UniProtKB/TrEMBL annotation:
Organism annotation: Ascobolus immersus RN42
Keywords: Carbohydrate metabolism, Cell membrane, Cell wall, Cell wall biogenesis/degradation, Glycoprotein, GPI-anchor, Hydrolase, Lipoprotein, Membrane, Polysaccharide degradation, Secreted, Signal
Name of the molecule in the record: Probable glucan endo-1,3-beta-glucosidase eglC
Membrane topology per record: Lipid-anchor; GPI-anchor
Signal peptide location: 1-24
Enzyme Commission (EC) number: 3.2.1.39
GO BP field: cell wall organization; polysaccharide catabolic process
Record localization: Cell membrane; Secreted, Cell wall
Catalytic activity, as annotated: Hydrolysis of (1->3)-beta-D-glucosidic linkages in (1->3)-beta-D-glucans
Main location: membrane
Cross-referenced InterPro entries: Beta-glucan_modifiers (IPR050732), GH (IPR017853), Glyco_hydro_17 (IPR000490)
Gene Ontology molecular function: any one: glucan endo-1,3-beta-D-glucosidase activity
Length: 315
Protein backbone atom coordinates (compact mmCIF):
# COMPACT_ATOMS: atom_id res chain seq x y z
CA UNK A 1 0.00 0.00 0.00
CA UNK A 2 1.28 3.50 -0.83
CA UNK A 3 -0.16 6.51 1.02
CA UNK A 4 0.98 10.04 0.18
CA UNK A 5 4.10 8.66 -1.45
CA UNK A 6 4.97 6.41 1.52
CA UNK A 7 5.28 2.66 1.12
CA UNK A 8 3.30 1.60 4.20
CA UNK A 9 4.66 -1.94 4.36
CA UNK A 10 8.21 -0.65 4.32
CA UNK A 11 7.28 2.00 6.89
CA UNK A 12 5.71 -0.52 9.27
CA UNK A 13 8.63 -2.89 8.76
CA UNK A 14 10.99 -0.08 9.71
CA UNK A 15 8.91 0.58 12.80
CA UNK A 16 9.12 -3.09 13.70
CA UNK A 17 12.89 -3.11 13.25
CA UNK A 18 13.25 0.03 15.32
CA UNK A 19 11.00 -1.45 17.97
CA UNK A 20 13.06 -4.63 18.06
CA UNK A 21 16.30 -2.70 18.43
CA UNK A 22 15.01 -0.35 21.13
CA UNK A 23 13.05 -2.93 23.12
CA UNK A 24 15.04 -6.12 22.65
CA UNK A 25 18.45 -4.40 22.47
CA UNK A 26 20.34 -7.28 20.81
CA UNK A 27 24.10 -7.26 21.11
CA UNK A 28 25.87 -6.16 17.94
CA UNK A 29 26.50 -9.17 15.72
CA UNK A 30 23.77 -11.25 17.39
CA UNK A 31 20.67 -9.93 15.63
CA UNK A 32 20.01 -13.29 13.97
CA UNK A 33 20.24 -15.09 17.28
CA UNK A 34 18.13 -12.64 19.24
CA UNK A 35 14.91 -14.63 18.74
CA UNK A 36 16.40 -17.64 20.51
CA UNK A 37 18.08 -15.69 23.29
CA UNK A 38 17.15 -16.65 26.88
CA UNK A 39 13.87 -18.42 26.07
CA UNK A 40 12.91 -21.75 27.59
CA UNK A 41 11.85 -24.05 24.76
CA UNK A 42 12.13 -27.45 26.41
CA UNK A 43 9.48 -30.07 25.63
CA UNK A 44 6.03 -29.69 27.15
CA UNK A 45 2.49 -30.81 26.42
CA UNK A 46 -0.68 -28.92 27.13
CA UNK A 47 -4.26 -28.26 26.19
CA UNK A 48 -6.40 -25.38 24.95
CA UNK A 49 -9.23 -24.24 27.19
CA UNK A 50 -11.91 -21.58 26.86
CA UNK A 51 -12.71 -18.70 29.20
CA UNK A 52 -16.38 -19.63 29.70
CA UNK A 53 -18.12 -22.38 31.63
CA UNK A 54 -20.54 -24.80 29.87
CA UNK A 55 -23.37 -22.26 30.12
CA UNK A 56 -21.36 -19.41 28.61
CA UNK A 57 -20.56 -17.58 31.85
CA UNK A 58 -17.13 -16.14 32.58
CA UNK A 59 -15.04 -18.34 34.86
CA UNK A 60 -14.04 -17.36 38.37
CA UNK A 61 -10.66 -18.21 39.89
CA UNK A 62 -12.34 -21.12 41.70
CA UNK A 63 -13.71 -22.42 38.39
CA UNK A 64 -10.31 -22.08 36.74
CA UNK A 65 -8.70 -23.98 39.59
CA UNK A 66 -11.28 -26.78 39.37
CA UNK A 67 -10.66 -27.01 35.61
CA UNK A 68 -6.89 -27.14 36.04
CA UNK A 69 -7.14 -29.73 38.79
CA UNK A 70 -9.34 -31.99 36.66
CA UNK A 71 -7.01 -31.65 33.67
CA UNK A 72 -4.10 -32.83 35.83
CA UNK A 73 -6.19 -35.81 36.95
CA UNK A 74 -7.18 -36.69 33.39
CA UNK A 75 -3.68 -36.51 31.96
CA UNK A 76 -0.83 -35.70 34.37
CA UNK A 77 1.53 -35.05 31.44
CA UNK A 78 -0.39 -31.88 30.60
CA UNK A 79 1.66 -29.23 32.37
CA UNK A 80 0.52 -26.17 30.39
CA UNK A 81 -2.84 -24.57 29.67
CA UNK A 82 -3.27 -22.39 26.58
CA UNK A 83 -5.69 -19.46 26.74
CA UNK A 84 -6.99 -17.56 23.72
CA UNK A 85 -7.33 -14.20 25.46
CA UNK A 86 -5.86 -12.25 28.34
CA UNK A 87 -8.59 -9.63 28.79
CA UNK A 88 -11.95 -11.19 27.89
CA UNK A 89 -13.65 -12.37 31.08
CA UNK A 90 -10.59 -10.97 32.91
CA UNK A 91 -9.17 -14.36 32.01
CA UNK A 92 -5.49 -14.00 32.82
CA UNK A 93 -5.87 -12.17 36.12
CA UNK A 94 -8.32 -14.83 37.32
CA UNK A 95 -6.55 -17.86 35.85
CA UNK A 96 -2.99 -17.00 36.95
CA UNK A 97 -3.54 -17.53 40.71
CA UNK A 98 -5.34 -20.80 39.93
CA UNK A 99 -2.38 -21.93 37.83
CA UNK A 100 0.03 -21.05 40.63
CA UNK A 101 -2.08 -22.98 43.13
CA UNK A 102 -2.22 -26.04 40.85
CA UNK A 103 1.45 -25.81 39.80
CA UNK A 104 0.58 -25.58 36.13
CA UNK A 105 1.81 -23.13 33.48
CA UNK A 106 -0.22 -20.85 31.21
CA UNK A 107 0.47 -20.01 27.58
CA UNK A 108 -1.34 -16.70 27.10
CA UNK A 109 -2.98 -15.58 23.88
CA UNK A 110 -3.05 -11.87 23.02
CA UNK A 111 -5.60 -10.98 20.36
CA UNK A 112 -4.10 -8.87 17.61
CA UNK A 113 -5.94 -7.21 14.68
CA UNK A 114 -7.49 -3.89 15.82
CA UNK A 115 -5.36 -1.53 17.87
CA UNK A 116 -7.84 -0.98 20.70
CA UNK A 117 -8.30 -4.69 21.40
CA UNK A 118 -4.58 -5.38 21.10
CA UNK A 119 -3.76 -2.64 23.61
CA UNK A 120 -6.42 -3.96 26.01
CA UNK A 121 -5.04 -7.50 25.76
CA UNK A 122 -1.46 -6.31 26.17
CA UNK A 123 -2.42 -4.29 29.25
CA UNK A 124 -4.08 -7.36 30.79
CA UNK A 125 -0.90 -9.37 30.19
CA UNK A 126 1.19 -6.64 31.80
CA UNK A 127 -1.10 -6.44 34.82
CA UNK A 128 -0.98 -10.20 35.38
CA UNK A 129 2.83 -10.29 35.22
CA UNK A 130 3.20 -7.27 37.51
CA UNK A 131 0.77 -8.85 39.98
CA UNK A 132 1.92 -12.48 39.97
CA UNK A 133 5.40 -12.39 38.44
CA UNK A 134 6.20 -14.48 35.37
CA UNK A 135 7.03 -17.87 36.87
CA UNK A 136 3.62 -19.28 35.91
CA UNK A 137 3.87 -18.04 32.29
CA UNK A 138 5.07 -20.61 29.74
CA UNK A 139 4.81 -18.26 26.77
CA UNK A 140 2.70 -15.80 24.79
CA UNK A 141 1.26 -15.83 21.30
CA UNK A 142 0.22 -12.60 19.61
CA UNK A 143 -2.74 -13.31 17.35
CA UNK A 144 -4.58 -16.54 16.63
CA UNK A 145 -5.14 -17.44 12.98
CA UNK A 146 -5.42 -13.75 12.08
CA UNK A 147 -3.09 -14.27 9.11
CA UNK A 148 -5.20 -17.19 7.87
CA UNK A 149 -8.31 -14.99 8.06
CA UNK A 150 -6.49 -12.07 6.37
CA UNK A 151 -7.42 -9.82 9.29
CA UNK A 152 -4.06 -8.11 9.64
CA UNK A 153 -1.08 -7.15 7.52
CA UNK A 154 1.94 -9.32 8.39
CA UNK A 155 4.10 -6.23 8.93
CA UNK A 156 1.61 -4.82 11.44
CA UNK A 157 1.43 -8.16 13.25
CA UNK A 158 5.23 -8.34 13.34
CA UNK A 159 5.35 -4.92 14.97
CA UNK A 160 2.82 -6.07 17.57
CA UNK A 161 5.10 -9.03 18.32
CA UNK A 162 8.05 -6.67 18.82
CA UNK A 163 5.85 -4.54 21.07
CA UNK A 164 4.92 -7.48 23.32
CA UNK A 165 8.51 -8.77 23.33
CA UNK A 166 9.75 -5.38 24.45
CA UNK A 167 7.21 -5.22 27.24
CA UNK A 168 7.71 -8.78 28.52
CA UNK A 169 11.44 -9.22 27.94
CA UNK A 170 12.69 -5.73 28.78
CA UNK A 171 10.12 -3.66 30.70
CA UNK A 172 8.91 -6.59 32.83
CA UNK A 173 12.26 -8.37 33.03
CA UNK A 174 11.16 -11.80 31.77
CA UNK A 175 13.43 -12.57 28.76
CA UNK A 176 12.94 -16.31 29.30
CA UNK A 177 9.29 -16.13 28.15
CA UNK A 178 9.01 -16.96 24.42
CA UNK A 179 6.77 -14.78 22.27
CA UNK A 180 5.21 -16.27 19.15
CA UNK A 181 2.28 -16.17 16.76
CA UNK A 182 -0.33 -18.92 16.37
CA UNK A 183 -1.66 -19.62 12.90
CA UNK A 184 -2.59 -22.38 10.50
CA UNK A 185 0.06 -24.32 8.62
CA UNK A 186 -1.42 -22.96 5.39
CA UNK A 187 -0.81 -19.40 6.61
CA UNK A 188 2.82 -20.20 7.48
CA UNK A 189 3.22 -21.72 4.02
CA UNK A 190 2.59 -18.34 2.41
CA UNK A 191 5.69 -16.24 1.78
CA UNK A 192 3.91 -13.10 3.04
CA UNK A 193 4.41 -14.27 6.63
CA UNK A 194 8.19 -13.76 6.48
CA UNK A 195 8.23 -10.55 8.61
CA UNK A 196 6.28 -12.40 11.30
CA UNK A 197 8.69 -15.33 11.22
CA UNK A 198 11.55 -12.86 11.63
CA UNK A 199 9.86 -11.26 14.65
CA UNK A 200 8.87 -14.29 16.72
CA UNK A 201 10.82 -16.47 19.13
CA UNK A 202 8.64 -19.48 18.30
CA UNK A 203 6.03 -20.50 15.74
CA UNK A 204 2.74 -22.03 16.84
CA UNK A 205 1.23 -24.13 14.06
CA UNK A 206 -2.44 -25.11 14.09
CA UNK A 207 -3.22 -28.25 12.10
CA UNK A 208 -6.49 -30.19 11.93
CA UNK A 209 -6.62 -33.18 9.56
CA UNK A 210 -10.37 -33.18 10.25
CA UNK A 211 -10.70 -29.79 8.53
CA UNK A 212 -8.71 -31.15 5.59
CA UNK A 213 -11.40 -33.76 5.05
CA UNK A 214 -8.94 -36.56 5.78
CA UNK A 215 -9.82 -40.15 6.47
CA UNK A 216 -8.84 -41.06 10.01
CA UNK A 217 -6.33 -43.59 8.66
CA UNK A 218 -4.44 -40.73 6.97
CA UNK A 219 -4.67 -38.22 9.81
CA UNK A 220 -1.12 -38.50 11.14
CA UNK A 221 0.31 -38.18 7.64
CA UNK A 222 -1.62 -34.92 7.20
CA UNK A 223 -0.30 -33.58 10.51
CA UNK A 224 3.32 -34.49 9.79
CA UNK A 225 3.02 -32.95 6.32
CA UNK A 226 1.75 -29.74 7.93
CA UNK A 227 4.69 -29.75 10.33
CA UNK A 228 7.13 -30.26 7.46
CA UNK A 229 5.64 -27.36 5.49
CA UNK A 230 5.78 -25.07 8.52
CA UNK A 231 9.33 -26.13 9.32
CA UNK A 232 10.40 -25.28 5.77
CA UNK A 233 9.23 -21.68 6.32
CA UNK A 234 10.40 -21.31 9.93
CA UNK A 235 13.98 -20.09 9.35
CA UNK A 236 15.04 -22.48 12.08
CA UNK A 237 12.68 -21.05 14.70
CA UNK A 238 11.26 -23.66 17.13
CA UNK A 239 7.80 -24.98 16.27
CA UNK A 240 4.98 -25.75 18.69
CA UNK A 241 1.76 -27.45 17.63
CA UNK A 242 -0.68 -24.80 18.85
CA UNK A 243 -3.90 -26.68 18.14
CA UNK A 244 -4.84 -30.12 16.89
CA UNK A 245 -7.74 -32.40 17.72
CA UNK A 246 -10.74 -34.34 16.44
CA UNK A 247 -14.46 -33.79 17.16
CA UNK A 248 -16.77 -36.48 18.49
CA UNK A 249 -20.09 -35.22 17.12
CA UNK A 250 -21.40 -33.04 14.31
CA UNK A 251 -21.33 -33.22 10.54
CA UNK A 252 -18.79 -35.07 8.43
CA UNK A 253 -16.28 -32.88 6.60
CA UNK A 254 -15.22 -34.56 3.39
CA UNK A 255 -14.03 -37.98 4.48
CA UNK A 256 -13.52 -36.83 8.08
CA UNK A 257 -16.04 -38.40 10.45
CA UNK A 258 -16.62 -37.07 13.99
CA UNK A 259 -16.82 -39.87 16.56
CA UNK A 260 -15.38 -40.98 19.88
CA UNK A 261 -13.71 -43.87 18.06
CA UNK A 262 -11.94 -41.49 15.69
CA UNK A 263 -10.91 -39.19 18.54
CA UNK A 264 -9.32 -42.22 20.18
CA UNK A 265 -7.54 -43.12 16.95
CA UNK A 266 -6.32 -39.57 16.34
CA UNK A 267 -5.06 -39.25 19.91
CA UNK A 268 -3.01 -42.41 19.54
CA UNK A 269 -1.69 -41.24 16.18
CA UNK A 270 -1.01 -37.56 16.87
CA UNK A 271 -0.53 -37.11 20.62
CA UNK A 272 1.61 -40.21 20.94
CA UNK A 273 3.69 -39.18 17.90
CA UNK A 274 4.30 -35.66 19.24
CA UNK A 275 5.20 -37.05 22.65
CA UNK A 276 7.58 -39.57 21.12
CA UNK A 277 9.22 -36.93 18.92
CA UNK A 278 9.37 -34.44 21.83
CA UNK A 279 7.61 -31.75 19.78
CA UNK A 280 5.84 -29.31 22.14
CA UNK A 281 2.08 -29.41 21.58
CA UNK A 282 -1.35 -28.28 22.72
CA UNK A 283 -4.44 -30.41 22.20
CA UNK A 284 -7.73 -28.79 21.21
CA UNK A 285 -9.52 -28.88 23.50
CA UNK A 286 -10.09 -29.71 27.17
CA UNK A 287 -13.89 -29.84 27.40
CA UNK A 288 -16.92 -29.75 25.13
CA UNK A 289 -18.53 -26.30 24.99
CA UNK A 290 -22.32 -26.67 24.69
CA UNK A 291 -22.90 -22.91 24.68
CA UNK A 292 -21.42 -22.76 21.17
CA UNK A 293 -23.60 -23.13 18.08
CA UNK A 294 -24.72 -26.61 17.03
CA UNK A 295 -22.07 -28.55 15.14
CA UNK A 296 -18.55 -29.87 15.53
CA UNK A 297 -17.12 -26.75 17.23
CA UNK A 298 -18.86 -27.60 20.51
CA UNK A 299 -17.61 -31.20 20.44
CA UNK A 300 -13.80 -31.05 20.34
CA UNK A 301 -13.28 -31.79 24.04
CA UNK A 302 -11.18 -34.65 25.33
CA UNK A 303 -13.81 -34.64 28.06
CA UNK A 304 -17.51 -33.85 28.11
CA UNK A 305 -18.69 -30.50 29.42
CA UNK A 306 -19.13 -32.11 32.86
CA UNK A 307 -15.50 -33.26 32.76
CA UNK A 308 -15.91 -36.96 32.02
CA UNK A 309 -13.05 -38.25 29.89
CA UNK A 310 -14.15 -39.63 26.51
CA UNK A 311 -11.16 -41.82 25.62
CA UNK A 312 -8.09 -43.63 26.94
CA UNK A 313 -5.08 -41.29 26.89
CA UNK A 314 -2.36 -43.93 27.18
CA UNK A 315 0.20 -44.24 24.40
Amino acid sequence: MVVAGINMKAFVAALGLASAVVRAAPVEGQVGAEAHQSVNLSYFSGINIGTQDPWGNCKSTATWQADFNRIKQIYPNFNTIKLFTTATCDALMLAAPAAIAENIKIWAGVWAVDTANFEREKAALEMAIRTYGAGWLRGVNVGSESLYRKEIDPYVLANQVYDVKGMVHIALGAPEVPIGVADTWTAWEEGATEPVVDAVDVILMNGFPYWQGARIENALEKLTDALAVTRSKSKGKPIIVGETGWPTAGANFGESVPSVENLQSYWRQAACYLQGQQIPWFWFSAYDEPFKAEGVERNFGLATFDKNLKINLQC
